[in-house]
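re: ur question from the group chat, yeah i did fold both. here u go
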Amino acid sequence: MEDVEIYLNRFASEKQLYAELAEKLGSNAVTDKNELAGALMNVDSESKFRLYVSNEDIPNETIDEITEVFRECEKNSKFVKMEIIEDEFLNLIDDTAHLTDTSKPRSLVHRDGDLHPAVHVWIIRRRDQGIFVLLQKRSHEKKISPDCYDVSAAGHLSQGDEFRKAAVRETAEELGLKIHGSELEHIGLLESHYSEGDINDNELRSIYLYRGTVHIEDLVLQSSEVSDVCWAEIDEMLAVIDEDGFDNCIDLRELALIKKAVF
């Protein structure tokens, strides 16, 4: 069975959506619902069409029209099978490390190893004993590095998003900590590559510091993302970071950026 992956972006125009269909169906003569129905009914070998629909909560009548055509053709053709998959779409990073307008379903980005944008926010506090960072313990529900200690808050940029805006949003969602973008100090950009099983996660991370006063007891953790938080002094953490019993996915390069920014 042939698998055909089609991206239906809720931000796309009718022309853009049918151009995507024409490309994936290998026919330039797909510019409306009637031509789409004709192309599908002419499929002469068993094919599975996976329709990836972006998960924004906005209407798109063309997508509704397209999915209805696929449903009808599945009923009337022994060769056409279809599946609708709602997914977050991410913009991709090009070869020059610039954010592009090209977007792709998150699950496929992680499958194919496409370079995509992410943000890391390190919450720090300075004490006489040293520089402390707030670590989050990742939820056991996470597909990547479950139950591991990690950066204070992190996340992807949804399509059309901006780095600093995403950093503010992720900090609020994961920790219940509302901050202003101007309170974030940008300390660097890093590429990160992670592979495990069928996951190939390649990110361009924008790294931020937050130096405001934070009390752990006031935080509201997003249970699906974060199971716990704690403070750790950087040098003490570095001394045990490779030891058994301290499961973590902390990037040492980011700790070096923190120390450079603080000292």
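okk and heres the other one u asked abt
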Amino acid sequence: MQPIEEVHVAPLGFEYDRIVGPVRRYEADVLYLLEHDDPASSPDYHDDLRDELTEVDVEVRTRSVDIMDVYDVLGVVTTLVADHAADLVRVNVSSGSKLSAVGATIACMATGATAYYVHPEGYPYADRGERQSYGYADDEVLPSYPIESPTADQIAVMDFLAETNTDAYTAKKKDVIEFAEEEGLAFVADNEPANDKAKFALLNANVVDPLVEDDYLAVEDVGRRKQLRLTETGTNALRAFRHLIRDS
């Protein structure tokens, strides 16, 4: 049986002790450092942090991410949690930017991972180029308010629309049904609809209506046809939950 690992995820911003402290306390097996994708913004002491982590006996893995983009962080964290579905995953929401904290917290709510906030011993540093705090006083688990992520079928359709729609063409419901049949999406394959009317009803009930309600999808009437396009919110949600297609 595969042993359960203690996996930590930490956006890498202007913190040091707030990352090392919990890794030591919980004896983490794996630490994912979410490094900002602009190397020029990386403080010099990040190298010292990595050196200390090698002494803690934790496997450090890095992922490039825009820690100033909520949805980029959200997408990376949800994917990492999915990659470690059998492990205990803790996500440090206090080590990056305010925006990365929002993305990481939402990711935990959507996946069931544990979000924690680290209390430092003090905040002596005012210069944004330096560490923002020192010491590790304690940490606390944040309250969880589970949120429902889109289904794998819904994400697959959103991805299809993102790939299909152009300035010259917008996909119709009929296109989506043909795609769903070709890919064997569950809302069609599991129900074996007897005719086109039943297929459209299943599409509306399982995909279109929920996505419209969440403001992920817009339906436009063009003559007698229903065209589908992603909203900006839907595009961001696709970034955050695209891993569901891979997992399914």
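fwiw on the second one: The mean pLDDT is 92. The chain has two domains: 6-141, 152-247. idk if thats what u expected
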